[in-house]
């Protein structure tokens, strides 16, 4: 059958925020789409911390998805607050209250837990859209302009378009680009505090309704209030990727990790060191990786990328917003005309320059968050 004579077969690899946004907008315009996800279910793993949704990116994508009102019902506008503290004394150096929105109120960049946002998108999709436990191992462009998805169970399916929305270690990206993520030189170690207003009231007051930052040369502490009284803390520092091996620290040994981190932040105010000392959870090592910038590729019929698969950046507030905007933009391009290849080219012509600019800004943001030098 001539592909132009039937409804196009569209596959999205990865049920993250960008892929789900793309699927939702496609379905709003009457297009069929299948999302393949390697995880066994929506609850297979924790989804991470809080996100601030920007008006011109994340919120614009949610508006395109018809979900902006439901987002605002869940979001925390008061969470868009930053407190910057002096590492030696714990004194407040700078306070940024929530950004005003277009109506002059609070909440220009309201916060929402990543898991809540993902749940909102999943609930909006037609039942059966996401095929869980369907790990993709690779994709091969076909001579007729389609693409063949290969799955871990040995099966394969052909599609008119395969969208790689499968994150940092994308299985779709190698069909378009030889680029691989590289270590930034910065690692985040994550821990958490439960029921902070009752169990950790001093920390709750220190963090406030939003986020806290204290930074020194080559190391910083960040804490973010999530929903339900939870605070996530990130111990950020510049070090080799295998810092724990060089230090002789077993990452599964909470006591050993805590002792090493406390030594790393010796001399910092004790109110800030409580982020290392008093957590209710263990420590999760998260070395930060990025794709080269600019990351571009020669257009290949039947394939494209969005989100971290296309432009992996440091986690400084842009990644999720851009992934969702990518998803909405691609869906709109696909529904604006009958030719898939022309639509994908139009999308890439907008997305690739935008992501290059954002990657440059994100790199500067990471340098600001964890300064390599004093001053």
Walk me through this protein's architecture.
- The protein is of the alpha/beta class.
- The protein has 12 helices and 17 strands.
- The chain has a 7-stranded mixed sheet with strand order 5-4-13-14-15-12-16, covered by helices on one side. Strands 7-2-1-11-17 form a 5-stranded parallel sheet, covered by helices on one side. Strands 8-9-10 form a 3-stranded antiparallel sheet, with no helix packed on it.
- Helix 1 runs parallel beside helix 4 (114-124), helix 2 runs parallel beside helix 11 and helix 11 runs antiparallel to helix 12.
- The radius of gyration is 22 Å and the shape is globular.
Give descriptors for this structure.
single chain, 375 residues, alpha/beta, 7-stranded mixed beta sheet, 5-stranded parallel beta sheet, 17 strands, globular
Characterize this entry briefly.
With 375 residues, the protein is an alpha/beta fold. The chain contains 12 helices and 17 strands.
| N-to-C span | 65 Å
**What's the story with the biggest beta sheet?**
7 strands, mixed
Give the DSSP E fraction (strand runs of 2 or more residues). Answer: 15-25%
Beta strand count:
17
Spatial order of the strands forming the largest sheet? 5-4-13-14-15-12-16
Helicity, as a percent range = 25-40%
Radius of gyration: 22 Å
Overall outline: globular
Structural class computed from helices and strand pairing: alpha/beta
Output the helix-strand order.
Answer: EHEEHHEEEHEEEEEEHHEEEHHHEEHHH
Poorly predicted parts:
103-107
């Amino acid at each position: 059958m001539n592909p132009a004579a039937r409804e196009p077969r569209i596959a999205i690899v990865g049920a993250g925020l960008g892929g789900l946004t793309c699927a939702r907008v496609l379905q709003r315009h009457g297009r069929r789409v299948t999302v393949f996800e390697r995880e066994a279910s929506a609850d297979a793993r924790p989804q991470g911390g809080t996100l601030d949704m920007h008006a011109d990116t994340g919120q614009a994508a949610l508006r395109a998805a018809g979900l902006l009102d439901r987002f605002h019902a869940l979001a925390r506008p008061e969470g868009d607050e930053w407190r910057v503290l002096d590492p030696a004394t714990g004194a407040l150096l700078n306070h940024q209250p929530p950004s005003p929105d277009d109506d002059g109120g609070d909440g220009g960049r309201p916060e929402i837990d990543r898991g809540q946002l993902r749940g909102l998108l999943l609930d909006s999709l037609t039942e059966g859209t996401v095929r869980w436990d369907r790990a993709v191992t690779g994709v091969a462009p076909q001579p007729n302009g389609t693409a063949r998805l290969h799955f871990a169970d040995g099966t394969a399916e052909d599609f008119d378009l395969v969208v790689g929305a499968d994150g940092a270690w994308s299985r779709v990206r190698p069909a378009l680009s030889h680029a691989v993520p590289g270590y930034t030189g910065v690692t985040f170690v994550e821990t958490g505090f439960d029921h902070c207003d009752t169990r950790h009231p001093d920390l709750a007051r220190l963090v406030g309704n939003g986020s806290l930052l204290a930074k020194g040369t080559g190391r910083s502490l960040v804490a973010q209030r999530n929903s339900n009284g939870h605070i996530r803390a990130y111990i950020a520092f510049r070090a080799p990727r295998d810092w724990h091996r060089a230090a002789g620290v077993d990452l599964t040994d909470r006591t050993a990790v805590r002792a090493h981190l406390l030594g790393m932040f010796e001399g910092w105010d004790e109110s800030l060191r409580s982020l290392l000392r008093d957590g209710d959870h263990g420590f999760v090592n998260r070395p930060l990786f990025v794709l080269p910038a600019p990351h571009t590729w020669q257009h290949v019929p039947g394939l494209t990328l969005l989100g971290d698969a296309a432009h992996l950046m440091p986690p400084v507030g842009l990644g999720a917003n851009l992934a969702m905007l990518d998803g909405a933009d691609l869906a709109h391009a696909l529904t604006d005309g009958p030719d898939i290849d022309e639509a994908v080219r139009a999308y890439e012509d907008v997305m690739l320059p935008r992501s290059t600019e954002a990657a440059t800004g994100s790199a500067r943001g990471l340098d600001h968050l964890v300064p390599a030098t004093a001053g």
